Amino acid sequence: MANSGLAEEQLRQSHKMEAIGQLAAGIAHEINTPIQYVSDNSVFLRESWTVINRIVSVAAKVQDEWRRGALSTSTRDELDSCFRAADIDYLANEIPRAIDETFEGARQVAKIVRAMNEFAHPASENKCACDLNQAIENTIAFSRNVWKYVARVETSLDREAPLVLCRLDEINQVLLNLIVNAAHAVGSSNENGLQGLGTIRVRTTFADGWITISVSDDGGGVPEDVRSRIFEPFFTTKPLGSGTGQGLAMARVIVEEQHGGRIWLESTAGTGTTFYVSLPVDPEIPA
Description:
The chain is an alpha+beta fold and about 290 residues long. Helix 1 (about 1-65) runs antiparallel to helix 3 and helix 3 (about 90-120) packs across helix 4. The strands form two sheets. A five-stranded mixed sheet has the order 2-4-5-7-6. A two-stranded antiparallel ribbon has the order 1-3. The protein has helices at about 1-65, 75-85, 90-120, 130-140, 145, 170-190, 245-260; strands at about 130, 150-155, 165, 200-205, 210-215, 260-270, 270-280. The longest helix is centred in the first third of the chain and has 66 residues, at about 1-65. It is an enzyme of class 2 (transferase).
């Protein structure tokens, strides 16, 4: 039994690292874009400061001469020349914009890094109280490069929901699998965004000691004849080489066997699919 448990843990860890590896290039791109904003705006602000610093220096000279009652024509002309060369109206408009974009770029990078840290959090032997809404938001940010070209992601999260006793790294893995699967389903339905963006909806609700997460897509749906096999190990509806068939099987083990929850799906051909994950807030309390 010990060997079996160790093998399962190693398989889960391997699956998680595989997911991180597959998303690595996209994450790098997601970080590079705001970093480029920060870099470009930093160069602009440095150049702008050179202009502003010259104006400030000459203005200080004007103030000094004026106090002494000996403001020279050459100093006035120098200040006038500085203002004409500076294009003050342009700087007044562009500097605040550059500062805002720099702050926003830094915020985006921090958000992505925080999501990466949360997702890659080392496995813990013990369950701890976790915020599933925050886990969902982190996973959406972490996987953005997978879904942004094919779908919009909409969330409706119950902010009154309590913390859930769980192993966060495992739940993150389940969430990532469901969101990536939803993106793939939408992409297959809309020719990878060429027919317009689809929609992925993520929702949380809390009732009777259980939190239920739903991940819905408006893709083509899961064929009725394979729905009963969707959680079987090595079963996949994806083209050969596009999936291992381990993701949903692993999700079922994590949710049902490791956390005492439930995972199921509802699907309509041509309309889309919704996966549900229902977890007890405290698995030690009988339902």
